[in-house]
Amino acid sequence: MTSTETAKLSPNVMAEAEGKGTSRLPKWLRLLLKSKTGTTGFIILTIVTVTAIFAPWIAPYDPVEQHVVDMLAPPFWLEGGSSKYILGTDNLGRDLLSRIIYGSQVSLIVGLFAVIVAGAIGLTVGLVSGFYGGWIDNVFMRLVDSFLAIPNILFTLVILKLTGPGLMTLIVVLGVTNWVVYARVIRSEVLSLKEREFVRAARSIGVRDGAIMFKHLLPNVFSSFSVIATLSMATTIISEASLSFLGLGIQPPIVSWGGMLSTGREYLATNWGLATFPGLAITITTLGIIFLGDWLRDVFDPRSQDY
């Protein structure tokens, strides 16, 4: 095709030809690549997830293996550091890098499953409350108000003190204490959606209430649910680290970033890396999740002009 013939092509044809290569990519991936924030969050979360899954093959040492002669060894790039320990060792001679790698497993497991528990409760309450209204709505909303009246951290501390710390206990407690935000947002959307024509049409042909809620309303509120779940996961990881720091979360010998912070605080003056590196791991992971959540919010926001 000559340059003259090319110039005669319409702008739409030219745009289609230019975008043909990128159209093969999934839509979500093309939207993700347009957002620096979303791409950064996705890369961080992918690295943390891969690290957690392949921890036994990535970690240079067993996280509980003690090297007594190398206790409190500094990172290899500092004076007195050894090339055997990239980030140094802790007060018992355990490799800090290996412990941080294994600690990612606990953070992701607690964050993911606590969000699943909270999301399942909040989604169900929000759908039922918004759909039926009346006294059912009043009962659920007063329950929501009761949870909001008690600080989450106080409620969590009381339950953990009564039941005792542990991985499963922590997941259930964090899930039960964080479902309120899901319920409030989902309920407000259902109150609007249930007056739409497609819901009235479903009722007119005799579709059951359960089918309407979970087959027709649920897909329409799932975007908001996804955004809340993503941002809530970051908060949950911080909560787990805080509780482990206080000794009420994950217990040794299971490795957790919060527990490493608790140990490292006693050596800040002599070996700052014991607390700094786990703290950086928590910060970077939560920032990655928040970045990804912000991108999801922009993608699902119909008023957004970026996408």
TrEMBL record:
Residue stretches spanning the membrane: 40-59, 106-132, 139-160, 166-186, 217-238, 272-293
Sequence ranges assigned to domain ABC transmembrane type-1 in this UniProt record: 104-293
Main location, first listed in the record: membrane
Keywords associated with the record: Cell membrane, Membrane, Transmembrane, Transmembrane helix, Transport
Protein name: ABC transporter permease subunit
A GO term from the CC aspect: plasma membrane
Subcellular location: Cell membrane
Family of the protein in this entry: Belongs to the binding-protein-dependent transport system permease family.
Any single biological process term in GO: transmembrane transport
Bilayer topology: Multi-pass membrane protein
InterPro entries from the UniProt entry: BP-dependent_transpt_permease, MetI-like, MetI-like_sf, OppC_N
